[in-house]
Every structure is written in C-alpha cells, then in structure tokens.
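Budget justification note: compute hours in this period were largely spent on complex prediction jobs such as the one shown. Inputs:
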Amino acid sequence: MSAINDTVGAFVPGARVELDPLAAGRLSGRDFAVKDLFDVAGAPTTYGNPDWARTHPPAVATAPIVTALLQEGARLRGKTKTVELAYGLTGENVWHGTPLNPRAPNRFPGGSSCGSAAAVAAGLVDFALGSDTGGSVRIPASFCGLFGIRPSAGAVSLAGARPLAPSFDTPGWFARSAGLLAEIGEVLLPGGGESVGGVLLRAEEVWMNAIPEVAEALRPALELLEDRFGRTIGVRLMPEGLDTAYDHFRAVQAEEAWAALGGWVASTEVRFGPGVGERFAAAREMDPALAYAGRAFRRRMQARLRPMLAGGAVLVYPTSPCPAPLLSTNQEEQAELRAAVMGVTAIASFIGAPEITLPVGTVAGAPVGLSLTAAPGRDRALLAFAREAAAVLNLPV
Amino acid sequence: MSAINDTVGAFVPGARVELDPLAAGRLSGRDFAVKDLFDVAGAPTTYGNPDWARTHPPAVATAPIVTALLQEGARLRGKTKTVELAYGLTGENVWHGTPLNPRAPNRFPGGSSCGSAAAVAAGLVDFALGSDTGGSVRIPASFCGLFGIRPSAGAVSLAGARPLAPSFDTPGWFARSAGLLAEIGEVLLPGGGESVGGVLLRAEEVWMNAIPEVAEALRPALELLEDRFGRTIGVRLMPEGLDTAYDHFRAVQAEEAWAALGGWVASTEVRFGPGVGERFAAAREMDPALAYAGRAFRRRMQARLRPMLAGGAVLVYPTSPCPAPLLSTNQEEQAELRAAVMGVTAIASFIGAPEITLPVGTVAGAPVGLSLTAAPGRDRALLAFAREAAAVLNLPV
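Corresponding output:
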C-alpha cells in the first residue's frame, strides 16, 4: 500500500499508521482513518497531546471497532488529529496543527474529531471514525459538509478507546454519502431495533436558537421532508432553555472528565493548548452540587423526551446554530459559540439518542447540517430514514 | 462514624474507606459499600490485584455513581473485594482472601463482585455497588440470596470505574429487598422509559439447562408469577444452544478485555491468582476470527431477542443453572461451571438488557435466584415489576 498525501493536515504527524484489510467483506475497496484516541497495536495513541503520548507506551492491542472494519474489507490509511483529550469543539490543536476545513479554508474544521472530518471532506479516505461526547462528531460533520452519526449510548464498543466523559462518550463516523454511513452501521451497530418515521418533530427552540441565515438555509430541506414524510409537529424540548441545558451538560461532563482523566492530569506535568487546560482546571474545582443538579436535569430531560420519541418519531433541527467559526475567532468568542452549540448537542447526549447530521446547506459558502434524532436503540432505522431523506433532498445516497 | 466489624471478609484489607453523606436525601439512613474497581478520592483502587495497586496511585476523583449516592444521603462504609480485574465468577481472591458466602459458608460467594454481595448478605451494609460484564452482579446475588440488578448497557455511568470488556460492562447493585433495589435505581437510572409486564416469556432452554434441583426449587415461583401476571409463553432464545452462546461471549469478552487491559498486563510483571492469568494469556493469543464470529453472533441475538421484548414482555429463567459451588471445587470443575453459567448470563449481556435476580429458593440449603429480563431501556419498569413479583412471592419488598 502507498501512503496517501495528507493535503489538509488531517493525520497525526509522524509515521503513518496503515493496515491492510483482514478479509474481504462488505467494505472491501473502502479506506478509512481513525481518530487518534482509538488504539492500533504497535502505534502510539497520542490523544492529541504530546504529554499524553510521552507518558503512555504504544498500544498493545487494536480497538475492536477498528478490527471489525478491517475484517469487513476496509483499509486503514492513518490516525487522525483530535482536540487534546477530545475536550473542545473548534478542532484546534496547537501541537499537531489544526486541520484545514476543506469546505471552508478560512474557518475551523470543528472538533474534537477534526482530523477525521477533514480527511473525509478532502476525499483522502472514504470514511473515518471519530468519537462524540457533546458534539465531537456532529459538529465537525456539520462544519465540513459531511454525513455524520453519533449512535445510541452503549450501542458501539469503546474498548481500546480513551475516555472523556464515559456516560456521554460514543464512537461515531463520517462519510460523504448516506449509503456508506448506513453500511458502516451494518458492521458496527447492534442487530434489530425498531422503526422510525411517520411523524417529524420540529424542535422549535433549536430553530429559533440558530442564527437566521442557518435557519433560512435549512428551511427548504425541512419543508421537503415535511412534504415527503407527512405529519410534522412543532415541539418544545426544553422549557428551561438551551442555555440551561448547556450549563447542566457542562457540569456533568466536567465531573465525568475529572473522574476519568483527573488522575493523569494531576500526576503529570501537562502542557495544554488554549482552552483545554482551563476546562480541566474548572472541572477540578467544580462544586459537586452543580453536577448533582446536572444529573437531575438529565433525568428530567430523559423522562420528557424519551416518551416523545417512543413511537418512532424523529426530531429535526439545525445541527449547529452557526457555520464553522472563522479561524480569527478569539477565545472569548469561542466560549460563546461553545455555549450556543452545546445547548443543542446536549439534546442527544443527555438522552442517549442516535443523531445523524445531513450536509444540507451553506451559509456564506460554509456548510451547515440538518439533524435527525430518534429514540435510543433505533440507530439502524434512523440510518435508513436518513438515506431516504438524502434521496428526497438530492444529497449523495 | 465508627468502622463496622467485617465478619465475612467482605472489605479490602487495610484502612477502611468511609465517607459521610453529602446531603440528606432519599437514601438517608442507608449505608453502602462499593466494589474496589470504583474510585474514591484519596484511596487506592486495587482492582483486586496487588500489582494493580502497586502500579496505580490513589484515586484523585470519586466516581460520580458514588457521589450521587452520597448526595442522596447514603453513607459509604467501605470498599469491597473483587475478583482480580473482575475476570472470574466464583469470587475467589487469593491475595485479599475470598469473602465468606454468609448464606452458605462452605460455598463460594460468587463473583466478580464477591465482597459487595457478602457485605449485603451479612447485613454489614444496606446495599452495595458492584459491576457486571458477564454475570458479576447477577451470579453473586443468586449465590448469596440477594436481589441484584444489571442495568441496560450504557444506562448508568462507569466514569471513575475500571474496565474489563467495555461493550458489556455495567455497574450494578445488591440489596436485601426489592424496594431498596428500586430506590437506588431512582437515583442512578435514566429518567422515563417504557412499561413492562403483561406477558412472561419462559426461556425454555435455560430451564432445561439448569440442574433439576434448581428448576424444581424455582418452579413454584414461576407458577405463582404466571398465575398473577397472566399470559406465559415458552420461548427458545438460542437455537444454537447455550454452549455456543458461551463460546461466542467469551471470545468477544476476551478481545475487549485485551483491548482494555492488555497494555497494562503486557507492560507489568503481574502475578495472578488461579484462572485469571490463564484467561488473559488466552485473550492475548486469541484468533481474531473468533471475535469476528462472536460479534456477528451478538448481532443475530440482538436481532432475534429485542423484537421479542419490544412490547414489554419479561423473560423469566433461573439466574444460574446451579447454586454456588463448594469451596472444594477444583479449577477444572470451575471451568465447566463457568461455561454452564455464562451461557445463561450471556443472554442479557449480549442484548444489553436489564436483568434482575430475585432470591427465590434454595438447593441443599444454598440460595438460587430467579431472573427477570426486559428490553434495553426498561430498567425502571423492570424494577417496579420485580417489586410486584417480590410481593407475590412473599419476598422482602
């Protein structure tokens, strides 16, 4: 095999990690990349941070999710950049270099699965694995004009992957067509599951929360889906407001991140890039009462939203309230953006639901995605529904 | 607070880890213990093995699941023994000493959450946290005459817990009454969820797989439940046979265990007690084709069983085909036992379903449990159903 030319800086610097397929299968002829928080035997797992790389030996085993893809015929072409410890949404990595957003070169690619999104968007690979805690697949997919999925909580193995906030962490993947997105699901997702469709639920406050240009860019797609799939109902998901959801999400995430990674952070001289170190410092100092309130809020959200989706309904809303921020965006503006974005991504993260983003529109030339979210466990049905939706919207199927 | 007297050897040797409640709440007045694979800030997490303890510093953060219980008024009374790296079912630990089975002192307590089961069965605490990958809560609960639950995959956070086979790992808990088991669920489980009941599914091959004395001891309870809850249907879950399920389970578990822990095992001079080292050695050498077949089998099981349970049906079957083995059981006999037991525990593990065991009968004076298993996500409803069942069966509610 010959190394591919990394035109966008998607891959982790250093020797490229490549593996031949282990057998012929339904992914024969496809090549893929994997976010550098999944292990590949013999290679370092940097987790996006030089001090992590320095303090952890190369992986002894390969993550089963990677092996499963190799056994179905796919070829691994490299490990992709991640935001340090997956704790950030812009896709910036000052140590490895921030990958280019191939669809909007003056903007961030989104993160934390930035390299995976960039590699797929640039056509370097057919698909890529990422991971998603609070939007780390959905946001770079939206920002880079890709199909992306965050599966149901617990649906796909995270063995051989580094944690961030375990009760929210899921693997996820990116592709340029709804069909390939679904084919990967055939390999990785649990068998069975119930159907979706029939009724679309328009999440009103998420549409109102989006900047007007985003809502504008996505509304024609919403209308086409409404025409095609019949009944649409406007719903309010969070009477408390998206900002409240963000505050609670970030508290629960911080408690889990400190439980999962605090030991390493506290015992290691870690240099972090902008923002990441501050988030760990805040996690370390956080009042436990905030996490308590956040966990209680999560239970209320689950109790409210799961029944809403139990009959197979599909929520539809803008994946992100805005397109990718410009590379010139400063830290303060990034924090505002983070709050606005994560009030939305918290929906699926809180309820453990599968969410698929479709590359539906552009704003000022930059991609914006439309999300479909279903009840936990309906991942396969949602992938099939997304494929139908893509056909209706004239997107690659 | 005063340290309680550990009459059964349930707690990890050394200084007792105790914590006062953080607030008053619905668990005020209850005390609990936690399996020593969950972190408590400032204390070592031994994971049942002296070399693990030696190579890992004391925990920096407390697992959120522990904090959540303290915040609801519960008092932590200690960390309990576990089988080394949670990789075993008898409950033996040659380094820390195998806990006594308070209900059958000449028999093993069951594992891997052996100390938690022993502590609750001996009345040292009101409830205890364990974890379950392939039976590590359900089996000691059955062997020690306790209520025990393995929740749905992904339902309860494992942040701050050590992994064994991440796609199967769940927390779990033990109590002496169905009511307390459910109250803990109110604190830890996701909100909402659908109902269960109406139809009982008698898993025929599991009843046939049980030794006759166990089936005999549990049948009166089955009949009482059938009378009370109406319709019962006999079903076959695994045409391939329980032995096949065990073989596939063990392959997938081994792949994940090596992905999760192989790095530490390979880089550390680890001394293991009987059986555990052999299992890691086998995991290291395992043919990847076996894991591939195991993952495919899991998808088929999910596709077969999830629709069976989608309407709210509850599977009912013996938790274990036998009571706890005698302490004199040798390694070869233990391996046979392991195969027979895990063909049954693999059912819920494979489909990610919640399973509750009820302390229903005895065989030669040793406890045996009856299991209720529902569709993934129906944990709260299953706990309510188990409470009703306990009332019908004259068990502590």
